[in-house]
Design goal:
The chain is mainly alpha-helical. Helix content is about 70%, strand content about 0%. Helix 2 crosses helix 3, helix 2 runs parallel beside helix 4 and helix 2 packs antiparallel against helix 5. The longest helix is centred in the last third of the chain and has 22 residues. It is elongated, with a radius of gyration of 17 Å.
Length: about 110
């Protein structure tokens, strides 16, 4: 593979690795706390040590990275929790923006733009 092909291939892999929870760093404190509270409330009903750890967190002190950890944990280990949290309007908005972003990137890729 030539260097330019490797670069284009690497760029495509980076795009594929982007996930919606990466947008949590762009949320204001109020929105991040609100979404954290949703995760925390859902984890409170889960009989699992890690879920209980998250359930004890103060939503006003949850960082964007911690919120991303909650998201990934719910997504992989407790899909029922994730399903309920996905109904939260903030996450619905993030997912909609993510879908538009991905659609634009795919359109640009197909048209030969970078």
């Amino acid at each position: 593979m030539h260097e330019s092909e490797q670069s284009a291939h690497h760029h495509h892999d980076e795009e594929e690795d982007y996930a919606p929870y990466e947008a949590y760093g762009h949320l204001g404190d109020h929105h991040r706390s609100s979404l954290a509270q949703e995760f925390i409330g859902r984890f409170a009903g889960v009989d699992d040590p890690r879920a209980q750890h998250y359930a004890q967190m103060d939503p006003h002190h949850v960082s964007a990275d911690e919120l991303g950890e909650m998201h990934r944990y719910a997504e992989h280990d407790h899909p029922g929790v994730m399903g309920k949290v996905m109904e939260h309007p903030i996450l619905t908005g993030i997912l909609a923006a993510f879908a538009v972003h991905k659609a634009h990137k795919e359109r640009d890729r197909r048209m030969g733009y970078r």
